[in-house]
Amino acid sequence: MPALDRRLKVATCLATEAGGVAMRLRPPPGGPLATLKGVQDWVTEADGAVERFLSERLLQEFPKDGFQGEEEGIGRTGVLRWVVDPIDGTANYMRGANRFCVSLGLLEGDQPLAGVIVAPALGETFAARHGGGATLNGVPMHAADTAAMNRATVEIGWSARRPMGDFLALCGRVTEAGAVLRMGGSGALGLADVAAGRQDAYAELHINLWDVAAALVLLQEAGASVSDFMAAPGPVSGNPILACAPGIGQAMTALF
Looking at the whole model, is its pTM more than 0.90? Predict the structure, then answer.
């Protein structure tokens, strides 16, 4: 797939440059320097700057491709569509913390084809294309072989779009099954960590397309089990997501 390989290579370069933009604009550690869009839904100057940078550069490289960003929505249409979360983990980023990333996914219709996630402050780049495997900093990565919940580490993301009681109940079911819980503040990086085998599952009761567009192909190529996020209404208004090591897929699905 030469055309797809080229798009992945360009996307990796552009996401890396975009990560540099985010680093230059990153606030110092301390109180939040951002604006609230909703309940604990933050936006910074860098979100807009990174999204504009990627939109303009992708237009230069692939003028027929569509573009959709978290902040501005669908800016261009095309058979292929780039979906961008300019800074995933803004709540971390706005306080000078390191766990945030630039997420850039490529879709054909509702089929994920390629994805790049760059975490500049961590020095990490996750990349994958359909049928081409998944890598972390150029090294092949795979989901963990964990087969028991009492050996599992599970990250659960929180969303204001679902009742707090549902979130707490899910946390309770997972801990009662014996797993250790994490909460890292970046859905894209949480999913990427499942693909890399660093944790055994990521679950969130509602998440948006821009948060998962790059991660879906990473997970698929790394051999993880993933729920059908792209079923309606996922591409338009979001869906739940569950990604996990195959050995605990059945158990996590029952809990989820």
Answer: yes
